[in-house]
Each structure stands twice: as structure tokens, then as C-alpha cells.
Amino acid sequence: MFYSHLKGHIEALLFACGEPLSASRLADILEIPIEQLILLISEITEEMAADNRGVTILEVAGGYQMCTKPELIAIVEKLAAVQETRLSSAAMETLAIVAFRQPITKQEIENIRGVKVDKVMLTLLDRGLVKEVGRKEALGRPILYGTTHDFLKCFGLNSLDELPALSEFVLSKQLDE
User: Fold this and answer.
1) pTM
2) DSSP letter string over the chain?
């Protein structure tokens, strides 16, 4: 390939950034056509898989990011002594409601869950997983919430289109009952 000499450049940019970089941004920096960049990333990813190396390139949140291979998470956790930052089941339930029903008001979330969600919403806002996305055209103009770019990164999604179909869960639950 004509641009093969740029593979190291791509790896360096993705490593240095630490955040997902869009294909268009990478192509602009390297001054190459975006189609060539995507081919190079595909080649690099194949090489990383074949060489039993510790990192790979994932397509996440609308960009590319260099990540540790999932099968090596246990060894990396020993090094980093990762701080436990799990969300409570109430927070995960609320986050799922926001993800699948956004944009949604706090009152609508409370109607679905059947409990107040003030504290849970503060936790999700503090962690950057949800954000205010506007105001609903209704009495009192309540705040509408949606998920963030960090939500996509946290769950390894490229876009909300990659969320599983909600109907799969409803059917599964009905079969269990």
C-alpha cells in the first residue's frame, strides 16, 4: 500500500490521544484520503491480532482508539489497582431508561421506575454518563436528559444504534414469566 509508512504515525496519534479520534481528524492530520486511512487502520488491527500483541484498535464513539486487548484486562488491573467504580443497580436501571428512551425528563424516568431518581441522576451527571439535552415543550418546561459521548466510550459503543433492541428484553422477560 502506498501509505504504509504512515502506520506508525497512526499508532502514535492514537496512543498519544487516549481518546477516540475520528477518521476524518486522523486523515486531516496525516494529509491522506479518508479511504486510505480506514484501510491502514484495518491493516494495523489485523497485524495487532496476528502478532499476539497487547493492544488493538477499536472503533468506539465515532472514532478509533488504541485499547488493551480485552483478554489482558486481568493483568492490567493488577498493575493499575483499578478503583472500583461500579454503578448501583438503581443507577444502571436509570441509565438504561435514559439510553433507550432519550430525550427523557426526570419525571418520566420516575414514572417508569416508580421511585424518585434525584440522587441517582446526580451520580450519573457527576460521572458524565448523562447530560441535559434541552427542555420539553410542556408545563414547567422540564429538563430533558440524554446519554453522553462518555456513555458510548464506557459501554464500547460506536453509536446509540448499537444498543440492543428493547423488544429483545421484553420478549425475554415474558418468556421467563
Assistant:
1) 0.60
2) -TTGGGHHHHHHHHHHH-S-B-HHHHHHHHTS-HHHHHHHHHHHHHHHHHTT-SEEEEEETTEEEEEE-GGGHHHHHHHHTPPP-PPPHHHHHHHHHHHHH-SEEHHHHHHHHSS--HHHHHHHHHTTSEEEEEE-SSTT-PEEEEE-HHHHHHTT-SSGGGSPPHHHHHHHHHHH-
